[in-house]
Amino acid sequence: AQSVAQPEDQVNVAEGNPLTVKCTYSVSGNPYLFWYVQYPNRGLQFLLKYITGDNLVKGSYGFEAEFNKSQTSFHLKKPSALVSDSALYFCAVRDVNKLSFGAGTTVTVRA
Amino acid sequence: NAGVMQNPRHLVRRRGQEARLRCSPMKGHSHVYWYRQLPEEGLKFMVYLQKENIIDESGMPKERFSAEFPKEGPSILRIQQVVRGDSAAYFCASSPRTSGGVSTDTQYFGPGTRLTVL
Predict the structure, then answer these.
(1) Local structure of residue A108 (DSSP, 8 states)
(2) Among B43, B93, B112, whose Cβ lies nearest the Cβ of A90?
(3) pLDDT over 70 percentage in chain A
(4) Residue A1 — very low, low, confident or very high, per pLDDT cuts 50/70/90?
(5) Which residues from B are below 8 Å from A43, CB to CB?
(6) Does the pLDDT value for residue B99 go beyond 60?
(7) Test the A interface: residue of B57, B95, B99, B107 with most A CBs within 10 Å
(8) In this predicted structure, what is the pLDDT of residue A97?
(9) What is the Cα gyration radius of chain B?
């Protein structure tokens, strides 16, 4: 089965600093990887996905992610974090009919 | 273009009652997925449906849970004889298509239904 892992439960950064949320994957075949964000008491919002092509994927709200095959990673990045980026972030991998999610990383951006 | 709609947003039931959760996919989407988010846990897949067909229900509990996606109307997730352990957020997602094998289509999520069982 396909799976992803998010090694950090929480990430804390100061506003204006770079933000990185880590994700590693374990798949057989080609990985189809996704990032979603969840704000309190809300649904998941799609940020970006990697299917094939360039290893650097650009998404919504200034986020990007870098696919690294040798390290089996798909880390989410933002060059300059905002307080409004504080939320729960999920990495996911497509597994035939479903998405398999990581446990999530809570990001707190302090002013 | 309206997104995925779910209702109700909040649902309170007493133990033993039935819960019905509704999901209307995005316009043009004919594939629906249900996920459950238990407190302090990530999202877990429950079931994948196309119109009038259950394609994959590998994540559904064997008893008390059922899902349907009729030709007309929303998809319904039904939980019979609810227990406290059913308290969770239930999310519906939709996608435009799935070809054979692994789909690369993005799943778009609704706002969820938060079920509380007293």
Answers:
(1) E
(2) B43
(3) 100
(4) confident
(5) 4, 6, 91, 109-112
(6) no
(7) B107
(8) 81
(9) 14
Question: What span, in angstroms and rounded, lies between the C-alpha atoms of A22 and A54?
Answer: 19
Distance from CA of A48 to the nearest CA of B (A): 9
Give the model's confidence band at B23: pLDDT under 50 very low, under 70 low, under 90 confident, else very high. Answer: very high
List pLDDT tens digits, range A56-88.
999 999 999 999 999 999 999 999 999 999 999
* CB atoms near residue A80 (< 10 Å): 12
d(CA A82, CA A73): 24
A101 touches chain B (CB under 8 A): yes
Q: Is residue B55 less than 8 Å (CB to CB) from chain A?
A: yes
Assess contact for A98 and B48: CB atoms under 8 A. yes
Which residues on A lie below 8 Å from B109 (Cβ)?
36, 43-46
State whether B109 and A99 contact (CB < 8 Å).
Answer: no
Answer positive or negative: Cα dihedral of B63, B69, B73, B75: positive
Q: What's the gap in Å between the CA of A111 and the closest CA on chain B?
A: 26
CA nearest to B77, candidates B102, B110, B107: B110
